[in-house]
Amino acid sequence: MREKNRANLQGRRKAVSAALVLLFAVLALLIILPIWVLFVASFKPGSDLLQYGLNLDIRVSRMNLDNYVLLFAGQHEYWKWFFNSICLTVVTVAGTLVVSSFVGYGFAAYEFKGKRVLFVVVLLILSIPLEVVMLPLYKQMSAWKMMDSYAAVILPFVAHASTIFFFRQYLVSIPGSLLEAGRIDGATEYGIFYKLIVPLMKPAFSAMAILNGMNAWNNYLWPLLVIRSSEKYPLTLGLNTLINPYGDNYSLLIVGSVFSVIPIFLLFVAFQKYFIEGMMAGAVKG
Question: How does pLDDT run across 198-227, given as a tens digit for each residue?
Fold first, then answer.
């Protein structure tokens, strides 16, 4: 009887494992397929894309490198938009990690008046979509005379509620004895943070760098409201201007979209070592 039950249990485990493998294979296919379609389309003439749309039809006779030649040698502003997005993403991620880690550390390590109320405010902000606060933010940026500047794109999101919450959850289980040991050794509060806490937060920084980097790189709606000059457009806005009622440039749009995936891919490769560890730790601590 025991052997039969053990065999049944092993059979169930194998069935569950097979079902999970199948599920993840389907999910991987759904994720990879659009990227593959975009990559194949980058070798097709713009006229084919306009006529047939994006598809998996591979006609070798119609495929060439003209779109890539146009990207690297043509007269356009793509690389200016690309550089603008790189700068915006780097500054936004760096600022968000610094400010949000300070705030999250404060919530986790210190006791102060109004701490619970402020943390509830952070949780409430998590539930408010950007569309609800866009008008107040827009009026605030206009009153501060920051319109048509990168500061207007970056500043409203430096203290990011979800990043603050994640850092707080990650740090909440830090033993108080570690902080006291730093104070006994004569370290300042900033010294404790930089010398003791920051090394422990590498997985959290990596996870949040990837997530905030993706958000900053793909940001479209808010820059659309505050950026007016075409030379300041990030890549998301710049690519959108290639399609308009008076003409289109599908050739540059498609190959430019392919290259827009590369920075996020490199960002994940750079930080993936700690990404899963950081996400799991932030999810279970506290």
Answer: 888 888 888 889 889 999 999 999 999 999
Locus of tokens 């479209």? 220
259 C-beta neighbours (distance < 10 Å), count = 16
The answer to whether 20 and 36 have CB atoms below 8 angstroms apart is no
Lookup result for tokens 């097709």? 44
* Radius of gyration, alpha carbons of the chain: 24
pLDDT tens figures, 255-282 = 998 999 999 888 888 877 766 665 555 4
- Amino acid found at 117: V
If you write DSSP's letter for every residue of 204-266 in order, what string do you get?
HHHHHHHHHHHHHHH--HHHHHH---GGG--HHHHHHTTEETTEE-HHHHHHHHHHHHHHHHH
Burial 39-51 (b: 16+ CB within 10 A, else e): ebbbbbebebbee
pTM: 0.84
